[in-house]
Amino acid sequence: MKIEIMDTTLRDGEQTPGLAYTQHEKLTVAKALLEDVKVDRIEVASANVSKGELASVQAISSMCQKRGCLDKVEVLGFTDGTRSVDWIVSSGARVMNLLCKGSLNHVTNQLRKTPEQHLEDIKFVINYATEKNIAVNVYLEDWSNGIMNSPDYVFFLIDNLKELPVMRFMLPDTLGILNPSQTYEYCSKMVEKYPEIKFDFHGHNDYDMAVANSYMAIKAGFSGIHTAVNGLGERAGNTPLSSIIGVINDHLSSFETGVDESNLNSISKLIEAFSGIRIPVNKPIIGENVFTQTCGVHADGDKKGNLYYNKLIPERFGRLRKYALGKTSGKASILKNLEELGIFLENDAIARVTQRIVELGDKKESITTEDLPFIVSDVLKTDYLTEKVKLINYYICHAQNLSPVATLKIEIDNVVYEETATGDGQYDAFMKALSKIYTQLGKTLPTLVDYIVTIPPGGKTNALVETVITWFKDKEFKTRGLDSDQTASSIKATIKMLNLIEQD
After folding, report:
1. How confident is the model at residue 320 (pLDDT cuts 50, 70, 90)?
2. Using an 8 Å Cβ cutoff, are 106 and 139 in contact?
């Protein structure tokens, strides 16, 4: 059986506090969701929000019209007479998700209306939308409270709407109150009473049960699930797209989706970049650490027969398994990282390198795979990693109302180069000066993918600042710098990067 995935990253996901996407960002995300991830439908906006929102929906609708998938674009509308429908018509979209009240409490205390009055408002909007060639899905807001506390009202509403041109009823756990047992019970009740109706489940994650509840909704017979990339959304967010896809593929063998799971990581990174909201490192499937073994015993077990593997193979999601370096790293973890770098050492040398890594871990210093050549060279007192790039000197000036200026003198293969550049910040000015030098050499610098600065808490101004920079050149890699000054630590990480790429 096919499960439809409706992703609401651009509507409900944008209700994350402090989050607002630009038109370009919305268009990029919509295209990626539909063409790369291949979700079935996307909810892109609420009607009547702003002129900017209207322009975004118009751009998405135009794109999808040209690609023949306009029917996959949905907009939230309201029981506000003709206003929402007219707005959606002007946006170019052709599907409205009509927000209705799914609990008697909401009807009487928020709308101050009777169920009969609310029903007439709904009917008017549906009929008007039909006249305007707008297809309609119906949301029953606060349905979870409604089915628990006022089921007669829920049934009254559906009984009177089911003969109207409504494609599907979308039942939200608006406040995230349900547990899996309740979800199965109430969803089963809906399916048994209305077997001819298509139901979607819209979960919220207030008790961290949105994925489990979505799972039970499918088990109960629902044909659609609503998601948001990275679980974004109001309060604790919506059902995370990546997690529920993993669950369906591995735990619901008689069900399938059209989602391309190999692109889940890339869409998650895209949303992380646009939203500015970092993915927790332990977030299933998409978190930085979830395919990283830290314990040396685990690395040893993997070496002897993949003993610590499960169905969630990282390659499924466009990722790779990694072995962390730190105080719990054993010989096997070190060997895995050395092999990745093409470094082969004798047992005695491996033991010494391992000891140094443990010492650094005890000091709470983070260690990347790319740090290993430097550690090997230092511990073994060898020239394993030749220092082809040497920072001779640099000068950075930052004055109020003036662009920062950086002058850089650097030695590359025994030749000294000097350049000056301005930038949006001190480090940006440094990088632009460096880029000038590499342009002269006919070389391209790696792309800076991510930049993380860690400062110890407690106001210890004499403490070191750690900067970890993620680069991309053929593959992603990280370099780390430590200094009491943030810009200096960033520059140290950059010089490490230059020496690594110059080894190739």
Report:
1. confident
2. no
